[in-house]
Design goal:
Blueprint lengths: L1 E3 L7 E3 L9 H15 L7 E8 L13 E8 L12 E9 L5 E11 L2 E4 L6 E4 L2
Antiparallel strand pairs: 1-2, 3-4, 4-5, 5-6, 7-8
């Protein structure tokens, strides 16, 4: 951008190229990609839901500039248990600009109702959620 001289009037702003403005969604996605890169790859399915940018204004309080989301980790696949979503862990998280991560609220564990035969004994193990 530069200003073009316009005689006795105010200079006129001239834009030399396209200005791209990225929104909050781009900021959230960039932050969540960094979270994904920081997690070790244990082959566990990880799902992130409801990502949101908490804002930069004073109303955000201690969460100013942070990204909050719900993370769901499935553990069934890691133990070769069928169904793969037999055991799920869910939590709300907040990642701060400093890199600090906090859990927000309770940690939820879901265990599907499943019946597993114990070898050839005729006995079964029943998991109920």
């Amino acid at each position: 951008m530069y200003f073009k001289y316009n005689g006795d009037q105010l200079p006129e702003p001239m834009f030399t190229g396209k200005v791209e403005v990225s929104g909050v969604d781009a900021l959230v996605n960039k932050g969540l990609k960094k979270v994904g890169d920081a997690l070790p790859d244990f082959g566990l399915p990880i799902t992130i839901k409801n990502p949101r940018f908490n804002g930069l204004d004073a109303a955000a309080g201690a969460k100013r500039g942070s990204i909050s989301f719900r993370i769901i980790v499935g553990f069934g696949g890691a133990f070769n248990v069928s169904p793969a979503d037999l055991l799920k862990l869910e939590a709300d998280m907040t990642i701060y600009p400093t890199g600090k991560a906090d859990f927000d609220g309770p940690l939820r564990v879901d265990l599907k109702n499943v019946v597993v035969p114990i070898g050839t004994t005729g006995l079964i193990w029943m998991a109920t959620g």
